[in-house]
Design goal:
The protein contains 49 helices and twelve strands. With about 950 residues, the protein is mainly alpha-helical. The strands form six sheets. It has a two-stranded antiparallel sheet with strand order 1-2. A two-stranded antiparallel ribbon has the order 3-4. Helix 25 (about 390-420) crosses helix 29 (about 460-480), helix 38 (about 680-685) crosses helix 42 and helix 41 (about 735-765) packs parallel to helix 43 (about 790-805). The two termini are about 65 Å apart.
Length: about 950
C-alpha cells in the first residue's frame, strides 16, 4: 500500500463503518489516485455521525440510470483526466452504443460502467486482475450475454461467449498472441454495438489487411455488398470464427453455389492447388527427415523448407481474391522449393553412394596390395629354389599382379581427382573464378554443385564431365588456365531441377506476370531463347538471376510503347485498387472503368534505343567475313543467342524501363513553345514561385506530360485541343468535372483576394521587399494559370497573403477574409476549396467551414475513402451527428442546425403524418424543442403527445 492510499484510508471516515470495503478499496484505481468516497457517493468526509456524514448532497448508492452520467462528471473533464492521459470521449461513445441508447429509453437492464469495470475494486485495463483485461473481457461480457432469459428479451442468442471460446480468435488469445481479438476488438469498447453488414469487412480488415485487400479485388466484394451479406462472416462465421481448411473449400463454397457452376469449378481448382502444394511440402519434409537420419547435412535445406512454409501461409490471403492465376503463382513458389529440396536430397544420396563405393574400392585395393606383399614376403623367406633356369611363368605372373596393382592405384587416383574436381570449392580455388564462386555462395543455387548445371545430364555428359574435371585438374596443377572463363548452361540442366511444370502457367516477378512457355517453346521476334537468355551468369554479384535489361531489349527495341511486344498488358495487370507512389494516390480501378490507356500517364517509362554500335563487334571478332554479316539480324541472333550464350548487353546498348527520374516539363511541346510556356512549365514542375519550396504537381510526379491534357486530335479535326474539364474526365470520369470547375472558382477567387490585399498593402509600404515577391507570385500565376498545379498555386497565394497581412499589421487596412484548412490531408489533393463550400444534408445546409476550419475534423470522420465507397455513397453508413451535436457539453439552440424543421409534414413509422412546423413556428403553437424532444431524444415518447392531445 503506497503512502497516498494509506493517508486516504486513514482520513476516510466512511471506511470506519463500511469496513468490509476496506480491503477491496485499497486496490481500487480511484483509491490509488486519492479519489475519496464522497466523489461518487456525495456526503461529507470527516464526521463520524451518520446524520452529518450523510448530509449535504449525499446520494448513497447511485441509481443505475445515473451511473454513466456520474462517471462522466470526472471522465469527461479534460483538466481532471489530462494528468492520467485518459481520453475524455468515453461517455459520448457510450451514448452512441446500444447500451447507452437503451438506457436513454429507460431500460436499466443494459450494461452500465460498473457492470464492466466493477465498483470498489476497479483496476487498470493492463492489470490481469481487471475485469476488462484482454483475457477477461469475454467473461465480463458473458455475465450478461450468457444469461438466456435476459438475452431472450432482446432477441439475442445466449451462446455467443461459448461460440467465441471455440473460435480461432480465442485460441490465439489463450496462447498469448498480443493482437488476438476479444469482444471489444470487434464491437468497440464504450461505444459497443454489433457491426452492420457493410461494416463487417472493415472491422475484420483492421487486422486481416492483406486478406481484405485481396477480397476487395474479388467478385465476392461487390456481390456481397449489393445483396446485403456480411462479407467475412459468410464463410468464417462471426463469434465461432474458423479458418476454412483447404480440404473443406469446395464444401464451404457449396453453401451458396450449386455444383457445376463456374464458381464451384474455380473452388475445385484452388483446392487442388492448395492440396498439391501442401502434399509437395510434406514430401519434402519426409525426404528431409530421411536424409537427416543417414547423416546428410540438412541445415540449409531446413531453412529453405521454412521459407516454403512461409510462402504457403502467405497463400491464404491471396485465396480471398479468387484469382486462380495469382494463387497458382504463389503455390508454385512452394512447389518449386519443395522440388529443389527433394532434388538436393537425391543428389546427396548419390554422393553418399559414390562415397561408399569409393571407400569399398579403396579398402579392396588396400587389402589386395597387403595380400600381394604378404605372399611376396612369404616367398622370399622360404627355402632357396634349386639350381637351374628361373621360372619364367612365375615372373610373368608376379609382373601381371603388380601391373594390376599399379593400374588399380592409377584408377583410384583418377577417381579421386574426378571427385575432388567436381566440388564447388575446387572451382573457387582459381582466382579468376572467385567472383563467380562468391556470387554462387550467396545465391539460391548455393546447394547445387557447379557441375550439375554446367554439365548437361546424360551418360555422354557424365564422361564429358569427368574428362573436363581431369582437364581442369591438369590446368590447375600446371597453372595454364585462362584469365577469362567462359561457360554455357544447357536448358536440360535447368529443367533437371526446375521441372517442365514451370513452363506451364505464369510466374510473378516484381509484380510482373511472366509466362515461361511462350518464351522457351516459341520463337520470340524470330529468335529461339534459352533459359540463360534471361537468367544471367552473374549480374551485380548475383548468380543465375534475371537480367531485366534482356527483357527490355526484346520488348522495346524498335517498338512504339503500348503496341506489339511493348503492350503493357503483356506483363502488367492493372491493380484493381488504389496505389500510392511518390506521394500520389491513384485508383487503378478507373483504368478499366474509363477505358484509359497506360501510356496516358506512363509515357516516360522507357529510356534508350538498344542500338548495336559496329565497334562492339571488334571486341570479340576481327575476321572480315564475320564483320561483313553485321546487318544480318537473324544470323547474328542465331549464333549469339540460340547457339551460344552471349549477353545481350555485350552487343546492345541498354534500354531502361520503369520509374525513371523525371525532369521539369520534359515534353515535346518545348520544341516550339519553350519561351511562351515557360511559366506554365515551371508551375507544373512546382517551380518559379517565391517563398514556397518546390512542390511538383501530382500529375507531374507520375509522368504526365503536356500531351496528357492538351492531347492531339486527328489532323482533319484541327490538331491540338485546348485543355478543359473533358481532359480530366477522359481519365478520371465524369465526377472530375465538378472538381475541375471547383479548382477554377477557388483559384480565381483566391488570386483575386490576394491581388486586392496586395493593392491595399502597397499603398502603405510601396517599397517593402516582401511585397515585391508577392507581386512576382501574382504575375507568375496570372501567366502560368494556376489550374496546372492547384496545390502549388494555392500555397503561393497563402504565403503571399500572410506576407501582406504582416506588412499591414496595426494599420487601418481591411483585408479580404482568408480561410485555410488547419491540417494536411490527401483529400485536399483534389478537393481544394472544399472548406468554403456548403452542401445540402437531409433538408438542412451543411457548412464545411465550421467542421473543417473551426472544429478541425478530418475528412475521414464523415467520409470513407473512394476505393471502399458504394457508387452513390457520400457519408459513412450509419453516420450520426448526435454524438457530437447532442452532447451535454454542447450548448446550442436546436434551431441553429434544424431551423423550424423540414418544410413538409413528417411521415411517421405507422404511416401517419406530423405537421412539425405547426408546432414549432412562432406564428402557430411556438413550442420549444425540449417540450417533445426531452434530453436530445430524436423520437419523442408518445406519452408527451397525450399531455396535449387526448
Amino acid at each position: 500500500m503506497n503512502a497516498a492510499v494509506f493517508v486516504l484510508m486513514l482520513a476516510s471516515t466512511c471506511l470506519t463503518c463500511h469496513s468490509e470495503l476496506k480491503a477491496r478499496f485499497a486496490e481500487d484505481a480511484h483509491s490509488r489516485k486519492g479519489v475519496p468516497c464522497t466523489a461518487c457517493h456525495g456526503g461529507v468526509e470527516g464526521p463520524l455521525e451518520m446524520e452529518a456524514a450523510h448530509g449535504k448532497d449525499f446520494r448513497g448508492v447511485p441509481e443505475r440510470s445515473q451511473i454513466p452520467r456520474l462517471c462522466a462528471d470526472c471522465h469527461s473533464d479534460p483538466e481532471r483526466m489530462r494528468p492520467f492521459n485518459i481520453p475524455i470521449d468515453q461517455y459520448l461513445y457510450y451514448q452512441s452504443s446500444y447500451h447507452g441508447q437503451a438506457l436513454a429509453r429507460g431500460d436499466t437492464r443494459v450494461a452500465v460502467c460498473t457492470d464492466c469495470h466493477g465498483t470498489h475494486d476497479i483496476r487498470p485495463a493492463q492489470d490481469p486482475r481487471s475485469r476488462v483485461y484482454r483475457e477477461n473481457v469475454a467473461e465480463t461480457c458473458g455475465r450478461c450475454h450468457a444469461q438466456k432469459e435476459l438475452m431472450e428479451r432482446y432477441g439475442l442468442s445466449a451462446d455467443v461467449v461459448d461460440q467465441y471460446r471455440a473460435s480461432v480468435h480465442f485460441q490465439a488469445l489463450a496462447s498469448g498472441h498480443p493482437r488476438a481479438p476479444h469482444c471489444a476488438t470487434c464491437h468497440g469498447k464504450h461505444g459497443a454495438a454489433p457491426p452492420s453488414v457493410r461494416e463487417v469487412s472493415e472491422v475484420c480488415g483492421l487486422c486481416h489487411t492483406r486478406s481484405m485487400e485481396m477480397f476487395l479485388q474479388s467478385p465476392h466484394a461487390r456481390a456481397f455488398l449489393s445483396r446485403g451479406l456480411p462479407a467475412c462472416v459468410a464463410c468464417h462465421d462471426n463469434h465461432a470464427t474458423t479458418r476454412v481448411n483447404p480440404e473443406r473449400l469446395v464444401e464451404v463454397c457449396g453453401k451458396c453455389h450449386e455444383t457445376g457452376q463456374r464458381p464451384m469449378k474455380v473452388a475445385a481448382e484452388i483446392q487442388t492447388l492448395l492440396r498439391t502444394a501442401t502434399a509437395d511440402l510434406q514430401e519434402a519434409q519426409t525426404a528431409l527427415e530421411a536424409a537427416r537420419a543417414v547423416g546428410v547435412p540438412t541445415r540449409a535445406m531446413e531453412e529453405r523448407l521454412e521459407e516454403a512454409r512461409t510462402f504457403l501461409s502467405g497463400v491464404q490471403p491471396v485465396v480471398h481474391s479468387l484469382q486462380v492465376g495469382d494463387i497458382e503463382a504463389e503455390t508454385r513458389k512452394v512447389r518449386s522449393i519443395a522440388s529443389e529440396i527433394r532434388s538436393e536430397v537425391q543428389r546427396w544420396r548419390g554422393h553418399r553412394t559414390a562415397q561408399r563405393f569409393l571407400l569399398i574400392a579403396f579398402w579392396f585395393y588396400l587389402l589386395l596390395t597387403v595380400a600381394l606383399l604378404e605372399i611376396r614376403r612369404a616367398g622370399l623367406s622360404g627355402e632357396k629354389p634349386p639350381e637351374g633356369p628361373p621360372d619364367e611363368r612365375g615372373s610373368v605372373r608376379w609382373g601381371a599382379l603388380w601391373l594390376m596393382v599399379g593400374l588399380g592405384g592409377l584408377l583410384l587416383t583418377v577417381f579421386l581427382l574426378m571427385q575432388v574436381t567436381s566440388t564447388p570449392a575446387f572451382c573457387g580455388s582459381c582466382h579468376v573464378m572467385q567472383p563467380y564462386y562468391q556470387s554462387w555462395k550467396a545465391s539460391t543455387h548455393r546447394n547445387v554443385p557447379c557441375v550439375d548445371c554446367h554439365i548437361p545430364p546424360g551418360i555422354t555428359s557424365e564422361f564429358r564431365k569427368k574428362y573436363e574435371a581431369l582437364s581442369m585438374a591438369a590446368q590447375y596443377i600446371t597453372q595454364t588456365y585462362g584469365p577469362n572463363p567462359w561457360a554455357e548452361v544447357e536448358d536440360a540442366s535447368c529443367l533437371r531441377c526446375h521441372e517442365r511444370r514451370l513452363l506451364q502457367g505464369k510466374e510473378v516477378f516484381h509484380d510482373i506476370v511472366f509466362d515461361h512457355a511462350p518464351h522457351l517453346l516459341e520463337l520470340r521476334r524470330g529468335m529461339r531463347l534459352r533459359c540463360t537468355s534471361c537468367h544471367s551468369q552473374i549480374v551485380q554479384g548475383l548468380h543465375i538471376t534475371v537480367t531485366e535489361s534482356t527483357c527490355f531489349l526484346c520488348h522495346f527495341k524498335n517498338q512504339r510503347l503500348g503496341t506489339g511486344p511493348a503492350r503493357c498488358e503483356l506483363c502488367h495487370i492493372p491493380p484493381s485498387g488504389p496505389v500510392e507512389a511518390q506521394g500520389v494516390r491513384f485508383d487503378h480501378g478507373d483504368v478499366r472503368r474509363f477505358g484509359m490507356e497506360c501510356v496516358w500517364c506512363h509515357q516516360k517509362s522507357i529510356r534508350g534505343e538498344g542500338a548495336v554500335p559496329r565497334e562492339r563487334c571488334l571486341t570479340c571478332h576481327n575476321e572480315p567475313q564475320r564483320l561483313a554479316r553485321f546487318g544480318d539480324e537473324a544470323y547474328l541472333h542465331h549464333q549469339h543467342v540460340t547457339e551460344h550464350k552471349v549477353e545481350c548487353t555485350d552487343c546492345h546498348q541498354e534500354i531502361q524501363h520503369g520509374r525513371l527520374p523525371l525532369t521539369p516539363a520534359a515534353t515535346a511541346c518545348e520544341r516550339c513553345h519553350l519561351s511562351g510556356h515557360a511559366p506554365t512549365r515551371d508551375l507544373y514542375a512546382g517551380l518559379g514561385g517565391k517563398g514556397v519550396p518546390p512542390r511538383p504537381s501530382k500529375m507531374f510526379l507520375t509522368g504526365v506530360d503536356c500531351e496528357g491534357c492538351h492531347f492531339l486530335e486527328h489532323a482533319a479535326r484541327g490538331g491540338l485541343r485546348r485543355a478543359n474539364e473533358v481532359s480530366c474526365m477522359a481519365c478520371h470520369g465524369t465526377r472530375y468535372r465538378k472538381i475541375y470547375l471547383q479548382w477554377k472558382v477557388v483559384l480565381e477567387r483566391a488570386l483575386r483576394d490576394v491581388e486586392t490585399a496586395y493593392a491595399s498593402a502597397v499603398r502603405w509600404a510601396p517599397a517593402a521587399p516582401v511585397l515585391q515577391d508577392v507581386k512576382a507570385n501574382l504575375e507568375f500565376l496570372r501567366q502560368a494559370n494556376g489550374i496546372h498545379n492547384p496545390d502549388y498555386a494555392l500555397a503561393l497565394l497563402a504565403w503571399s497573403y500572410r506576407q501582406v497581412q504582416e506588412t499591414v499589421r496595426g494599420r487601418p487596412v481591411r483585408l479580404p477574409a482568408w480561410v485555410q484548412v488547419p491540417y494536411t490531408s490527401s483529400c485536399m489533393n483534389c478537393h481544394q476549396g472544399i472548406e468554403l463550400q456548403t452542401a445540402p444534408y437531409r433538408g438542412y445546409t451543411f457548412s464545411h467551414a465550421k467542421h473543417i476550419t473551426v472544429q478541425a475534423l478530418a475528412c475521414e470522420t464523415c467520409h470513407r475513402p473512394h476505393e471502399v465507397r458504394e457508387p452513390a455513397e457520400v457519408l459513412r453508413p450509419g453516420l450520426a451527428c448526435g454524438p457530437c451535436h447532442h452532447a451535454p457539453e454542447v450548448r446550442r439552440a436546436c434551431q441553429d442546425c434544424h431551423g423550424l424543421g423540414p418544410p413538409g409534414d413528417l411521415r411517421l413509422a405507422d404511416g401517419r403524418t406530423f405537421p412539425h412546423r405547426l408546432h414549432a413556428s412562432p406564428e402557430d403553437l411556438d413550442l420549444a424543442c425540449g417540450t417533445c424532444h426531452a434530453a436530445g431524444r430524436l423520437r419523442p415518447d408518445p406519452k408527451v403527445c397525450q399531455e396535449c392531445h387526448e
